[in-house]
Amino acid sequence: MATTIKVTAGDATEFDTPALVVNLFQGVTHPGGGTGAVDRMLGGAISQLIADGEIKGKMGELTLIHTIERIPTRRVVVAGLGKSGDFDTGAVRRVSGDVARFLRRKGVGEYATIAHGAGIGGLNAAESAQAIAEGTLLGLYKFDTYRSNGNGGEDAGGPDGEVQTVTIVERDASTVNDLTAGVSVGTVLAESTMLARDLVNHPANVMTPTKMAETAQQVAEEVGLELDVMDRDRMREHGMGAFLGVAQGSEEPPKLIVMSYRGDPDNPENNLGLVGKGITFDTGGISLKPAANMEAMKGDMAGGASVIAAMRAIGSLKPRINVTGLIAATENMPGGRAQRPGDVVTAMNGKTIEVINTDAEGRLVLADTLCYARSLGITRLVDVATLTGAIVVTLGKACTGMMGNSSKLAKDLDAAGERSGERFWELPMLEDYRELIRSDVADMKNTGGRQAGSITAAMLLREFAEDADWVHLDIAGTSTASSNKGHLVKGATGVPTRTLAQLAINLADGK
Ligand code: BES
Ligand code: MN
Ligand code: ZN
Fold first, then answer.
1. In the chain, where are the structural domains located?
2. Ligand 1 centre and the CA of 444: distance in Å?
Protein backbone atom coordinates (compact mmCIF):
# COMPACT_ATOMS: atom_id res chain seq x y z
CA MET A 1 0.00 0.00 0.00
CA ALA A 2 1.37 3.32 -1.02
CA THR A 3 1.40 6.41 1.19
CA THR A 4 -0.91 9.30 0.24
CA ILE A 5 -0.06 12.94 0.95
CA LYS A 6 -3.11 15.20 1.45
CA VAL A 7 -3.63 18.90 2.08
CA THR A 8 -6.38 20.29 4.35
CA ALA A 9 -7.37 23.80 5.44
CA GLY A 10 -7.81 24.13 9.17
CA ASP A 11 -6.28 24.63 12.57
CA ALA A 12 -3.59 22.05 13.35
CA THR A 13 -4.39 22.20 17.06
CA GLU A 14 -7.92 21.01 16.30
CA PHE A 15 -6.92 18.22 13.93
CA ASP A 16 -7.80 14.75 15.17
CA THR A 17 -4.86 12.51 14.22
CA PRO A 18 -2.52 10.00 15.91
CA ALA A 19 0.41 12.43 15.57
CA LEU A 20 1.00 16.06 14.61
CA VAL A 21 4.39 17.29 13.39
CA VAL A 22 5.47 20.86 14.21
CA ASN A 23 8.93 22.38 13.91
CA LEU A 24 11.50 24.64 15.49
CA PHE A 25 14.50 26.58 14.22
CA GLN A 26 17.65 26.29 16.27
CA GLY A 27 17.94 29.06 18.88
CA VAL A 28 14.23 29.97 18.96
CA THR A 29 13.04 30.12 22.58
CA HIS A 30 9.43 31.20 22.02
CA PRO A 31 8.01 29.35 19.02
CA GLY A 32 5.50 31.12 16.76
CA GLY A 33 3.17 29.98 13.98
CA GLY A 34 1.71 26.48 14.19
CA THR A 35 4.33 25.38 16.69
CA GLY A 36 3.45 28.33 18.95
CA ALA A 37 -0.27 27.56 18.76
CA VAL A 38 0.35 23.93 19.76
CA ASP A 39 2.69 25.07 22.55
CA ARG A 40 -0.04 27.30 24.05
CA MET A 41 -2.61 24.51 23.87
CA LEU A 42 -0.15 22.25 25.70
CA GLY A 43 0.30 24.79 28.48
CA GLY A 44 3.76 25.83 27.29
CA ALA A 45 5.21 22.30 27.27
CA ILE A 46 7.36 22.97 24.17
CA SER A 47 8.76 26.28 25.51
CA GLN A 48 9.49 24.50 28.79
CA LEU A 49 11.43 21.74 27.03
CA ILE A 50 13.37 24.45 25.14
CA ALA A 51 14.09 26.29 28.40
CA ASP A 52 15.26 23.00 29.94
CA GLY A 53 17.65 22.54 27.02
CA GLU A 54 15.97 19.31 25.96
CA ILE A 55 14.81 20.74 22.62
CA LYS A 56 17.42 22.73 20.70
CA GLY A 57 15.93 22.80 17.22
CA LYS A 58 18.99 21.14 15.69
CA MET A 59 18.64 19.50 12.29
CA GLY A 60 17.82 15.84 12.81
CA GLU A 61 16.46 16.35 16.35
CA LEU A 62 13.01 14.81 16.90
CA THR A 63 11.10 15.14 20.18
CA LEU A 64 7.93 13.17 20.88
CA ILE A 65 5.41 14.69 23.32
CA HIS A 66 2.25 12.89 24.45
CA THR A 67 -0.65 15.34 24.69
CA ILE A 68 -2.77 13.42 27.24
CA GLU A 69 -5.95 14.72 25.55
CA ARG A 70 -5.26 18.44 25.84
CA ILE A 71 -5.68 18.58 22.07
CA PRO A 72 -7.28 16.04 19.71
CA THR A 73 -3.95 14.72 18.43
CA ARG A 74 -2.44 12.06 20.68
CA ARG A 75 1.18 13.00 20.07
CA VAL A 76 3.18 15.99 18.92
CA VAL A 77 6.55 15.66 17.24
CA VAL A 78 8.79 18.73 17.38
CA ALA A 79 11.20 18.49 14.45
CA GLY A 80 14.39 20.55 14.54
CA LEU A 81 14.96 22.56 11.33
CA GLY A 82 18.52 23.64 12.14
CA LYS A 83 19.74 27.23 11.76
CA SER A 84 17.30 29.48 9.93
CA GLY A 85 20.20 30.83 7.82
CA ASP A 86 20.89 27.33 6.43
CA PHE A 87 17.25 26.56 5.75
CA ASP A 88 16.12 25.48 2.28
CA THR A 89 13.95 22.85 0.60
CA GLY A 90 16.73 20.32 1.24
CA ALA A 91 16.14 20.78 4.97
CA VAL A 92 12.41 20.17 4.45
CA ARG A 93 13.12 16.97 2.50
CA ARG A 94 15.54 15.84 5.19
CA VAL A 95 13.15 16.52 8.10
CA SER A 96 10.20 14.98 6.27
CA GLY A 97 12.07 11.75 5.59
CA ASP A 98 13.44 11.45 9.12
CA VAL A 99 10.02 12.17 10.70
CA ALA A 100 8.26 9.66 8.45
CA ARG A 101 10.58 6.79 9.41
CA PHE A 102 10.51 7.86 13.09
CA LEU A 103 6.70 7.71 13.25
CA ARG A 104 6.53 4.48 11.25
CA ARG A 105 8.84 2.92 13.82
CA LYS A 106 6.44 4.13 16.56
CA GLY A 107 3.61 2.28 14.84
CA VAL A 108 1.87 5.43 13.61
CA GLY A 109 -0.14 4.72 10.45
CA GLU A 110 -1.25 8.29 9.75
CA TYR A 111 -0.22 11.75 10.89
CA ALA A 112 -0.51 15.45 10.13
CA THR A 113 2.17 18.09 9.66
CA ILE A 114 2.39 21.82 9.31
CA ALA A 115 4.06 23.05 6.08
CA HIS A 116 7.71 23.44 7.14
CA GLY A 117 9.17 26.76 6.11
CA ALA A 118 6.13 28.02 4.22
CA GLY A 119 5.67 30.88 6.69
CA ILE A 120 8.68 32.24 8.59
CA GLY A 121 11.09 29.94 6.72
CA GLY A 122 10.67 32.02 3.57
CA LEU A 123 9.90 29.16 1.17
CA ASN A 124 6.90 29.46 -1.09
CA ALA A 125 4.06 27.13 -0.23
CA ALA A 126 4.32 24.97 -3.36
CA GLU A 127 8.06 24.38 -2.88
CA SER A 128 7.59 23.47 0.75
CA ALA A 129 4.77 21.04 -0.03
CA GLN A 130 6.73 19.48 -2.89
CA ALA A 131 9.70 18.89 -0.58
CA ILE A 132 7.44 17.41 2.11
CA ALA A 133 5.93 15.00 -0.41
CA GLU A 134 9.34 14.03 -1.81
CA GLY A 135 11.00 13.65 1.58
CA THR A 136 8.15 11.66 3.07
CA LEU A 137 7.51 9.28 0.18
CA LEU A 138 11.19 8.71 -0.59
CA GLY A 139 12.10 8.41 3.10
CA LEU A 140 9.49 5.71 3.59
CA TYR A 141 10.68 3.76 0.54
CA LYS A 142 11.23 0.08 1.19
CA PHE A 143 12.24 -2.69 -1.14
CA ASP A 144 10.85 -5.96 0.22
CA THR A 145 9.78 -7.73 -2.95
CA TYR A 146 11.97 -10.67 -2.11
CA ARG A 147 11.01 -11.14 1.56
CA SER A 148 8.80 -14.21 1.66
CA ASN A 149 7.06 -13.30 4.96
CA GLY A 150 5.88 -10.02 3.43
CA ASN A 151 7.05 -7.95 6.37
CA GLY A 152 9.37 -5.09 5.83
CA GLY A 153 11.98 -5.70 8.48
CA GLU A 154 12.89 -3.90 11.67
CA ASP A 155 11.31 -0.46 11.30
CA ALA A 156 7.93 -1.53 9.92
CA GLY A 157 5.07 -0.16 12.04
CA GLY A 158 1.47 1.05 11.95
CA PRO A 159 -1.61 -1.16 11.81
CA ASP A 160 -0.28 -3.04 8.79
CA GLY A 161 3.27 -1.77 8.93
CA GLU A 162 2.85 1.23 6.67
CA VAL A 163 2.15 4.94 6.90
CA GLN A 164 -1.07 5.25 4.90
CA THR A 165 -1.75 9.00 5.00
CA VAL A 166 0.14 12.18 5.77
CA THR A 167 -1.93 15.38 5.85
CA ILE A 168 -0.45 18.86 5.53
CA VAL A 169 -2.68 21.14 7.65
CA GLU A 170 -2.72 24.81 6.68
CA ARG A 171 -4.58 27.62 8.51
CA ASP A 172 -4.67 29.93 5.52
CA ALA A 173 -7.23 28.53 3.08
CA SER A 174 -5.83 30.70 0.25
CA THR A 175 -2.51 28.79 0.18
CA VAL A 176 -4.15 25.36 0.03
CA ASN A 177 -4.16 25.41 -3.78
CA ASP A 178 -0.42 26.12 -3.91
CA LEU A 179 0.29 23.38 -1.38
CA THR A 180 -1.83 20.92 -3.34
CA ALA A 181 0.00 21.75 -6.58
CA GLY A 182 3.35 21.23 -4.84
CA VAL A 183 2.24 17.88 -3.42
CA SER A 184 1.14 16.71 -6.83
CA VAL A 185 4.50 17.56 -8.49
CA GLY A 186 6.42 16.11 -5.54
CA THR A 187 4.40 12.91 -5.67
CA VAL A 188 5.11 12.40 -9.38
CA LEU A 189 8.83 13.03 -8.86
CA ALA A 190 9.02 10.77 -5.79
CA GLU A 191 7.10 7.93 -7.44
CA SER A 192 9.31 8.15 -10.51
CA THR A 193 12.42 8.14 -8.33
CA MET A 194 11.10 5.06 -6.54
CA LEU A 195 10.68 3.36 -9.90
CA ALA A 196 14.37 4.01 -10.58
CA ARG A 197 15.24 2.64 -7.12
CA ASP A 198 13.21 -0.50 -7.73
CA LEU A 199 14.94 -1.15 -11.07
CA VAL A 200 18.35 -0.85 -9.39
CA ASN A 201 17.45 -2.88 -6.29
CA HIS A 202 16.10 -5.83 -8.27
CA PRO A 203 18.72 -8.53 -8.75
CA ALA A 204 20.31 -9.00 -12.16
CA ASN A 205 18.66 -12.40 -12.71
CA VAL A 206 15.35 -10.51 -12.79
CA MET A 207 16.35 -7.07 -14.09
CA THR A 208 17.69 -8.18 -17.47
CA PRO A 209 17.85 -5.92 -20.53
CA THR A 210 14.58 -7.55 -21.66
CA LYS A 211 12.96 -6.70 -18.32
CA MET A 212 14.20 -3.10 -18.57
CA ALA A 213 12.62 -2.85 -22.01
CA GLU A 214 9.34 -4.27 -20.63
CA THR A 215 9.40 -1.68 -17.85
CA ALA A 216 10.01 1.08 -20.39
CA GLN A 217 7.04 -0.27 -22.35
CA GLN A 218 4.80 -0.08 -19.25
CA VAL A 219 5.97 3.46 -18.53
CA ALA A 220 5.38 4.46 -22.16
CA GLU A 221 1.80 3.16 -21.97
CA GLU A 222 1.20 4.73 -18.56
CA VAL A 223 2.18 8.29 -19.48
CA GLY A 224 1.86 8.19 -23.27
CA LEU A 225 5.33 7.98 -24.85
CA GLU A 226 6.52 6.46 -28.10
CA LEU A 227 8.76 3.45 -27.64
CA ASP A 228 11.27 1.74 -29.91
CA VAL A 229 13.35 -1.19 -28.70
CA MET A 230 16.28 -2.13 -30.92
CA ASP A 231 17.61 -5.68 -30.84
CA ARG A 232 21.03 -7.05 -31.80
CA ASP A 233 20.18 -7.29 -35.51
CA ARG A 234 19.07 -3.68 -35.80
CA MET A 235 22.11 -2.52 -33.86
CA ARG A 236 24.27 -4.41 -36.36
CA GLU A 237 22.50 -2.67 -39.26
CA HIS A 238 23.40 0.67 -37.67
CA GLY A 239 27.03 -0.34 -37.27
CA MET A 240 27.05 -0.20 -33.47
CA GLY A 241 30.23 -2.23 -33.08
CA ALA A 242 31.19 -0.76 -29.71
CA PHE A 243 27.86 -1.62 -28.07
CA LEU A 244 27.75 -5.07 -29.70
CA GLY A 245 31.32 -5.83 -28.63
CA VAL A 246 30.21 -5.56 -25.01
CA ALA A 247 26.98 -7.50 -25.57
CA GLN A 248 28.62 -10.43 -27.42
CA GLY A 249 29.84 -12.09 -24.22
CA SER A 250 26.30 -12.54 -22.89
CA GLU A 251 23.42 -14.91 -23.69
CA GLU A 252 20.95 -12.20 -22.62
CA PRO A 253 19.70 -10.26 -25.66
CA PRO A 254 20.86 -6.61 -25.51
CA LYS A 255 18.32 -3.81 -25.96
CA LEU A 256 18.71 -0.22 -27.05
CA ILE A 257 15.55 1.31 -25.61
CA VAL A 258 14.32 4.61 -27.09
CA MET A 259 11.47 6.50 -25.38
CA SER A 260 10.15 9.67 -27.00
CA TYR A 261 8.10 12.45 -25.46
CA ARG A 262 6.93 15.16 -27.85
CA GLY A 263 6.00 18.22 -25.84
CA ASP A 264 6.79 20.71 -28.63
CA PRO A 265 6.22 18.84 -31.89
CA ASP A 266 6.34 21.97 -34.08
CA ASN A 267 9.84 22.87 -32.88
CA PRO A 268 12.17 19.88 -33.32
CA GLU A 269 15.17 22.09 -32.40
CA ASN A 270 13.67 22.41 -28.89
CA ASN A 271 15.02 19.03 -27.82
CA LEU A 272 16.80 17.18 -25.06
CA GLY A 273 18.27 13.67 -25.17
CA LEU A 274 18.79 11.65 -21.99
CA VAL A 275 21.19 8.72 -22.42
CA GLY A 276 21.54 6.09 -19.69
CA LYS A 277 24.06 3.31 -19.11
CA GLY A 278 22.07 0.12 -18.60
CA ILE A 279 24.61 -2.60 -17.80
CA THR A 280 22.29 -4.99 -15.96
CA PHE A 281 25.30 -6.80 -14.56
CA ASP A 282 28.95 -5.86 -14.89
CA THR A 283 31.28 -8.80 -14.27
CA GLY A 284 34.08 -6.88 -15.97
CA GLY A 285 34.02 -9.34 -18.88
CA ILE A 286 37.30 -11.11 -19.66
CA SER A 287 39.00 -8.42 -17.52
CA LEU A 288 37.01 -10.04 -14.70
CA LYS A 289 36.31 -8.09 -11.51
CA PRO A 290 37.36 -9.55 -8.13
CA ALA A 291 34.62 -11.36 -6.17
CA ALA A 292 34.45 -8.85 -3.29
CA ASN A 293 31.38 -6.61 -3.73
CA MET A 294 30.75 -7.82 -7.26
CA GLU A 295 27.06 -8.21 -6.29
CA ALA A 296 26.84 -4.40 -6.26
CA MET A 297 27.27 -4.51 -10.04
CA LYS A 298 23.57 -5.35 -10.39
CA GLY A 299 23.27 -1.57 -10.00
CA ASP A 300 25.34 -0.79 -13.08
CA MET A 301 22.11 0.07 -14.88
CA ALA A 302 21.30 2.94 -12.49
CA GLY A 303 21.85 5.56 -15.20
CA GLY A 304 19.41 3.80 -17.50
CA ALA A 305 16.95 3.37 -14.62
CA SER A 306 17.05 7.11 -13.90
CA VAL A 307 16.40 7.87 -17.57
CA ILE A 308 13.35 5.56 -17.70
CA ALA A 309 12.13 7.13 -14.46
CA ALA A 310 12.74 10.71 -15.63
CA MET A 311 10.82 9.96 -18.84
CA ARG A 312 7.91 8.84 -16.66
CA ALA A 313 8.03 12.10 -14.70
CA ILE A 314 8.37 14.19 -17.89
CA GLY A 315 5.47 12.33 -19.54
CA SER A 316 3.33 13.08 -16.47
CA LEU A 317 4.32 16.72 -15.94
CA LYS A 318 4.26 17.56 -19.68
CA PRO A 319 6.79 20.38 -20.19
CA ARG A 320 6.85 22.12 -23.62
CA ILE A 321 9.99 20.44 -24.99
CA ASN A 322 10.80 17.26 -26.94
CA VAL A 323 12.66 14.74 -24.81
CA THR A 324 14.11 11.42 -25.94
CA GLY A 325 15.36 8.84 -23.46
CA LEU A 326 17.87 6.28 -24.75
CA ILE A 327 18.92 3.36 -22.56
CA ALA A 328 21.84 1.12 -23.54
CA ALA A 329 20.93 -2.18 -21.88
CA THR A 330 23.14 -5.26 -21.88
CA GLU A 331 25.10 -7.48 -19.54
CA ASN A 332 28.90 -7.43 -19.51
CA MET A 333 29.77 -11.14 -19.26
CA PRO A 334 32.90 -13.22 -19.88
CA GLY A 335 31.22 -15.77 -22.19
CA GLY A 336 32.90 -17.88 -24.87
CA ARG A 337 32.07 -15.21 -27.46
CA ALA A 338 33.15 -12.34 -25.22
CA GLN A 339 35.41 -9.63 -26.61
CA ARG A 340 39.08 -9.75 -25.64
CA PRO A 341 41.52 -7.12 -24.47
CA GLY A 342 43.21 -5.82 -27.61
CA ASP A 343 40.11 -6.16 -29.79
CA VAL A 344 39.33 -3.13 -31.95
CA VAL A 345 35.69 -2.13 -32.41
CA THR A 346 34.13 0.42 -34.74
CA ALA A 347 31.33 2.64 -33.45
CA MET A 348 28.37 3.92 -35.46
CA ASN A 349 30.17 7.14 -36.44
CA GLY A 350 33.10 5.16 -37.91
CA LYS A 351 35.53 5.91 -35.08
CA THR A 352 37.58 2.95 -33.83
CA ILE A 353 38.33 2.01 -30.23
CA GLU A 354 40.98 -0.38 -28.95
CA VAL A 355 39.51 -2.32 -26.03
CA ILE A 356 42.35 -2.40 -23.51
CA ASN A 357 40.14 -3.42 -20.60
CA THR A 358 36.76 -5.10 -21.11
CA ASP A 359 35.67 -3.70 -17.73
CA ALA A 360 35.61 -0.20 -19.22
CA GLU A 361 32.39 -1.25 -20.99
CA GLY A 362 30.07 1.63 -20.07
CA ARG A 363 31.82 4.12 -22.33
CA LEU A 364 31.62 1.60 -25.21
CA VAL A 365 27.85 1.13 -25.05
CA LEU A 366 27.35 4.87 -24.48
CA ALA A 367 29.53 5.75 -27.49
CA ASP A 368 27.10 4.11 -29.92
CA THR A 369 24.05 5.34 -28.03
CA LEU A 370 25.29 8.94 -28.21
CA CYS A 371 25.89 8.49 -31.97
CA TYR A 372 22.39 7.11 -32.39
CA ALA A 373 20.89 10.04 -30.44
CA ARG A 374 22.77 12.42 -32.78
CA SER A 375 21.37 10.54 -35.78
CA LEU A 376 17.86 11.26 -34.46
CA GLY A 377 18.62 14.99 -34.68
CA ILE A 378 19.11 15.55 -30.96
CA THR A 379 21.36 18.56 -30.33
CA ARG A 380 21.40 18.68 -26.52
CA LEU A 381 22.51 15.55 -24.67
CA VAL A 382 22.89 14.49 -21.05
CA ASP A 383 24.28 11.03 -20.35
CA VAL A 384 24.02 9.34 -16.97
CA ALA A 385 26.25 6.44 -16.00
CA THR A 386 27.78 4.51 -13.12
CA LEU A 387 30.92 4.91 -15.15
CA THR A 388 34.03 4.91 -12.95
CA GLY A 389 35.23 3.79 -9.54
CA ALA A 390 37.51 6.82 -9.79
CA ILE A 391 34.61 9.24 -9.28
CA VAL A 392 33.86 7.58 -5.92
CA VAL A 393 37.48 8.24 -4.90
CA THR A 394 37.26 11.85 -6.13
CA LEU A 395 33.84 12.98 -4.84
CA GLY A 396 32.55 10.21 -2.59
CA LYS A 397 28.77 10.02 -2.31
CA ALA A 398 28.03 13.70 -1.70
CA CYS A 399 27.72 14.76 -5.32
CA THR A 400 27.65 13.50 -8.87
CA GLY A 401 30.64 14.10 -11.16
CA MET A 402 29.86 16.32 -14.13
CA MET A 403 31.92 16.70 -17.31
CA GLY A 404 31.06 17.96 -20.77
CA ASN A 405 31.60 20.32 -23.67
CA SER A 406 28.98 22.96 -22.83
CA SER A 407 29.26 25.29 -19.85
CA LYS A 408 25.69 26.45 -20.55
CA LEU A 409 24.26 22.94 -20.17
CA ALA A 410 26.42 22.34 -17.07
CA LYS A 411 24.94 25.53 -15.55
CA ASP A 412 21.46 24.31 -16.46
CA LEU A 413 22.14 21.08 -14.57
CA ASP A 414 23.45 22.97 -11.57
CA ALA A 415 20.29 25.09 -11.56
CA ALA A 416 18.05 22.02 -11.82
CA GLY A 417 20.06 20.38 -9.02
CA GLU A 418 19.56 23.46 -6.86
CA ARG A 419 15.80 22.79 -7.05
CA SER A 420 15.99 19.00 -6.63
CA GLY A 421 18.64 19.00 -3.90
CA GLU A 422 20.79 16.60 -5.97
CA ARG A 423 24.31 17.99 -6.26
CA PHE A 424 26.78 18.11 -9.17
CA TRP A 425 30.45 19.03 -9.32
CA GLU A 426 32.19 19.77 -12.60
CA LEU A 427 35.60 18.32 -13.43
CA PRO A 428 37.90 19.94 -16.03
CA MET A 429 37.89 18.61 -19.59
CA LEU A 430 41.34 19.94 -20.48
CA GLU A 431 42.80 18.93 -23.85
CA ASP A 432 45.86 17.56 -22.01
CA TYR A 433 43.79 14.59 -20.89
CA ARG A 434 43.02 13.51 -24.48
CA GLU A 435 46.51 12.07 -25.00
CA LEU A 436 45.95 9.58 -22.18
CA ILE A 437 43.53 7.63 -24.40
CA ARG A 438 45.70 7.76 -27.53
CA SER A 439 46.00 4.26 -29.03
CA ASP A 440 48.84 2.75 -31.07
CA VAL A 441 46.41 0.96 -33.38
CA ALA A 442 43.01 2.71 -33.29
CA ASP A 443 41.50 6.22 -33.00
CA MET A 444 41.49 5.87 -29.21
CA LYS A 445 41.72 3.27 -26.47
CA ASN A 446 39.05 2.61 -23.86
CA THR A 447 41.15 3.21 -20.75
CA GLY A 448 43.59 5.95 -19.86
CA GLY A 449 45.56 4.33 -17.07
CA ARG A 450 45.61 5.43 -13.45
CA GLN A 451 45.47 9.19 -13.96
CA ALA A 452 42.17 11.12 -13.96
CA GLY A 453 40.09 8.00 -14.60
CA SER A 454 36.71 9.75 -14.62
CA ILE A 455 37.88 12.45 -17.01
CA THR A 456 39.54 10.10 -19.52
CA ALA A 457 36.25 8.15 -19.64
CA ALA A 458 34.46 11.41 -20.43
CA MET A 459 37.12 12.27 -23.04
CA LEU A 460 36.17 9.09 -24.89
CA LEU A 461 32.45 9.91 -24.72
CA ARG A 462 33.14 13.41 -26.08
CA GLU A 463 34.30 11.84 -29.34
CA PHE A 464 30.76 10.51 -29.87
CA ALA A 465 28.70 13.48 -28.69
CA GLU A 466 30.55 15.38 -31.44
CA ASP A 467 29.04 18.84 -31.92
CA ALA A 468 25.98 18.42 -29.72
CA ASP A 469 25.86 20.32 -26.44
CA TRP A 470 26.65 17.52 -24.06
CA VAL A 471 27.08 16.83 -20.36
CA HIS A 472 28.11 13.52 -18.79
CA LEU A 473 27.04 12.64 -15.24
CA ASP A 474 29.06 9.97 -13.43
CA ILE A 475 26.78 8.57 -10.70
CA ALA A 476 28.97 5.63 -9.58
CA GLY A 477 29.06 7.21 -6.09
CA THR A 478 25.62 8.79 -5.82
CA SER A 479 23.48 5.98 -7.24
CA THR A 480 23.47 4.14 -3.92
CA ALA A 481 23.29 5.21 -0.26
CA SER A 482 25.02 3.36 2.57
CA SER A 483 22.53 4.35 5.31
CA ASN A 484 19.12 5.92 5.91
CA LYS A 485 19.17 9.71 6.03
CA GLY A 486 16.34 12.10 5.19
CA HIS A 487 14.83 11.20 1.84
CA LEU A 488 17.55 8.60 1.19
CA VAL A 489 17.37 5.02 2.37
CA LYS A 490 20.09 2.40 2.24
CA GLY A 491 20.38 1.01 -1.29
CA ALA A 492 19.47 2.69 -4.56
CA THR A 493 18.88 6.47 -4.48
CA GLY A 494 17.24 6.97 -7.88
CA VAL A 495 19.68 9.85 -8.54
CA PRO A 496 19.43 11.93 -10.77
CA THR A 497 15.80 11.24 -11.80
CA ARG A 498 14.36 14.39 -10.19
CA THR A 499 17.10 16.62 -11.62
CA LEU A 500 16.61 15.32 -15.16
CA ALA A 501 12.87 16.01 -14.95
CA GLN A 502 13.54 19.47 -13.48
CA LEU A 503 16.05 20.17 -16.27
CA ALA A 504 13.40 19.42 -18.91
CA ILE A 505 10.92 21.68 -17.08
CA ASN A 506 13.44 24.53 -16.76
CA LEU A 507 14.54 24.29 -20.41
CA ALA A 508 10.89 24.27 -21.52
CA ASP A 509 10.25 27.42 -19.49
CA GLY A 510 13.29 29.06 -21.09
CA LYS A 511 15.04 29.22 -17.69
N1 BES B 1 30.61 -0.13 -13.48
C2 BES B 1 31.98 0.17 -13.28
C3 BES B 1 32.21 1.41 -12.41
C4 BES B 1 31.72 1.36 -10.99
C5 BES B 1 32.61 1.12 -9.96
C6 BES B 1 30.41 1.63 -10.67
C7 BES B 1 32.17 1.11 -8.66
C8 BES B 1 29.97 1.61 -9.38
C9 BES B 1 30.85 1.35 -8.36
C10 BES B 1 32.67 0.39 -14.61
O11 BES B 1 32.17 -0.33 -15.67
C12 BES B 1 34.08 -0.04 -14.43
O13 BES B 1 34.30 -1.20 -14.22
N14 BES B 1 35.01 0.92 -14.51
C15 BES B 1 36.39 0.63 -14.35
C16 BES B 1 37.12 1.32 -15.45
C17 BES B 1 38.57 0.94 -15.56
C18 BES B 1 38.68 -0.50 -16.03
C19 BES B 1 39.24 1.87 -16.52
C20 BES B 1 36.82 1.15 -13.00
O21 BES B 1 36.33 2.20 -12.58
O22 BES B 1 37.59 0.48 -12.34
MN1 MN C 1 32.99 -2.23 -15.85
ZN1 ZN D 1 30.21 -0.87 -15.55
1. 4-171, 190-508
2. 18
Rounded to an integer, the average pLDDT of 36-42 is 97
| 440 CB burial (10 A radius; 0-12, 13-18, 19+) | exposed
User: Any idea which fold 4-171 has?
Assistant: Leucine Aminopeptidase, subunit E; domain 1 (3.40.220)
Instruction: Collect residues with CB below 5 Å from ion ligand 2.
Output: 282, 359, 361
Q: How many CA atoms lie within 13 A of 51 on its CB side?
A: 7
Distance CA 97, CA 490 (A): 13
Mean pLDDT of 478-504: 98
Mutate to test the pocket of ligand 1, among 293, 331, 388, 455 (most ligand atoms within 8 A of CB): 388
pLDDT digits (tens, 9 = 90+) for 272-289: 999 999 999 999 999 999
Topology of 190-508 in CATH? Aminopeptidase (3.40.630)
Neighbours of 99 (CB within 10 A): 25
CA 139–ligand 1 middle distance (angstroms): 28
At residue 26, the pLDDT reads: 97
Q: Where are the beta strands (DSSP E) in 10-119?
A: 20-24, 62-66, 75-80, 110-113
Q: What is the pTM of this model?
A: 0.98
CA distance 42 to 291: 58
Same fold, 4-171 and 190-508: no
Catalytic site includes residue 363: yes
Half-sphere exposure of residue 471, counting CA atoms within 13 Å on the CB side?
Answer: 24
Say if residues 111 and 55 touch (Cβ distance below 8 Å). Answer: no
Q: pLDDT at position 157, please?
A: 42
Q: Name the least confident of 2-6, 150-154, 486-490.
A: 150-154
Nearest CA-CA partner of 423 in 405, 396, 404: 396
- 289 carries an active-site annotation: yes
**C-alpha closest to that of 41 among 17, 15, 80:** 15
Question: Which residue minimizes the CA distance to atom 22 of ligand 1?
Answer: 389
Please state, in angstroms and rounded to a whole number, the distance separating the CA atoms of residues 250 and 246: 8
Crossing angle, helix 209-223 and helix 176-201, to 10 degrees? 160
| Residue from 455, 466, 451 nearest 426 by CA | 455
Beta bridge partners of 380: 469
Instruction: Tell me the CA–centroid distance for residue 323 and ligand 3, in Å.
Output: 25
Q: What are phi and psi of 84, to 5 degrees?
A: -65, -30
pLDDT class of 161 with cuts at 50, 70, 90 = confident
Q: At what angle do helices 497-508 and 302-317 cross, to 10 degrees?
A: 40
Structure confidence by residue, pLDDT tens digits, 195-212: 999 999 999 999 999 999
